[in-house]
Amino acid sequence: MSNEITPSGTVNHYKDRLFISIFGKDNDQSKKWRLDLYNALRGTNYTDPDALELNTIENVIYLTMRNDVSFLVDSQMTLFEQQSTFNPNMPLRGLMYFAQLYQMHLAKQGRTLFRTTLTKIPNPKFIVFYNGTRETEDREVLKLSDAFEIEDDSGQYEWTAELININPNHNKALQKKCKPLYDYVRYVSQVNENKRLGMQVKEAVNRAVDWAIKENLLDGYFKQQKEEILANSLTEFDAEEAYRDIRNDGYEEGLAEGLTAGLVQGASQKAIEDALNALKMNLSVKQVSQITSLSQEEVRELARGVVPEVGQCS
Q: Would you say 218 and 183 are in contact if contact means Cβ atoms under 8 Å apart?
């Protein structure tokens, strides 16, 4: 189990995704791997793992570089998220994440927008590590403008998410630069290969973990944290299969048309549909409540009937 520090400062408890377990922990090993990944992506050579300030929100790794003397070493606010399901709504999610993060940043700096001089902020960077089954390019830039109801190519209101395909045979140079990422990719690929051979999720994960221990992936991490990795992997891969089954059965459409009316009494169909769409984007209960007329309790009730509870953070 891990702690999640939300933008409001509250702490939630949840099972980590394996990606978060590797790169998002507050220990020396994870700090080193996190810096390796950051350097590989940015083409930098930072050597101090503590230079990266870490938070996690909604299973997303949020990184900034600490101030060095009187200047910012790398004035960029970076979000890392891992997705095994292709989601074209990532730019909108990123926009919502960063709106909260900038509020936190300004409050921490004791700065305000109500001033006559320009308030400077770190540059945003939203990276989505994708390892699902849909074929994509090595790197794709997903644009918020693609979601506009009326086409607008002016570029005046743009927000992006950079999708990086980390499946085998994609972005080999990046994986070569960052061994922790390469080992993570190898492990996930082994689980998927075991499933392809007909194994159930539990057997596929168990065998993949044993294989990873023999291969000494992540410098012994799989042996050291075997039970935690097993628990996280089973939760993650079970959730993926359950969600895939829901989509294949057309269950979401059935809920949107009828079942939801009995789940949330007195709520408008429009509010329910908006909440369903937001939940499918993996937004938190709090965020869904904020953008709809539903209370957090109503959203939780709705979520229990829409998607597996695993991965939903209140």
A: yes
